[in-house]
């Protein structure tokens, strides 16, 4: 499968997840994460589009809301799993320079203690 399509769908899902968590928790760090993920999604829209973007976004939005309702431990677990997967994907499939390098740095900052 095309690496740009996978990145596009991954960022659509990450945006939905972040928005779902932010809508429940209303913390500034989740708002920043949502805005970062949305900008990453917009970046990959330049290279690839898919009819699956919105369904993935909404599915992970629901997952984000449910996760946020379960508490901080659940949020930390889900976010850290998602971000480690994204980081591994970017490092394996893209050169860490330019805009991709910025995306990789953003992903590193989304990990929760």
UniProtKB/TrEMBL annotation:
**Does the keyword field hold Transmembrane helix?**
yes
Where does the chain cross the membrane? 56-75
Write the record's keywords in alphabetical order, separated by commas.
Answer: Membrane, Transmembrane, Transmembrane helix
- Report which superkingdom the organism of origin falls in: Archaea
- Protein known as: Rubrerythrin family protein
Lineage here is: Archaea, Thermoproteota, Thermoprotei, Sulfolobales, Sulfolobaceae
């Amino acid at each position: 499968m095309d690496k740009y399509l996978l990145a596009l769908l991954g960022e659509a899902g990450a945006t939905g997840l972040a928005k779902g968590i932010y809508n429940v928790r209303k913390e500034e760090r989740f708002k920043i994460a949502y805005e970062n993920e949305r900008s990453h999604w917009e970046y990959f829209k330049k290279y690839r589009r898919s009819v699956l973007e919105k369904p993935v976004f909404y599915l992970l939005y629901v997952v984000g809301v449910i996760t946020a309702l379960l508490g901080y431990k659940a949020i930390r677990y889900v976010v850290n799993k998602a971000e480690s997967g994204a980081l591994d994907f970017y490092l394996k499939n893209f050169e860490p320079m330019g805009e991709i390098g910025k995306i990789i740095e953003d992903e590193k900052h989304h990990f929760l203690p």
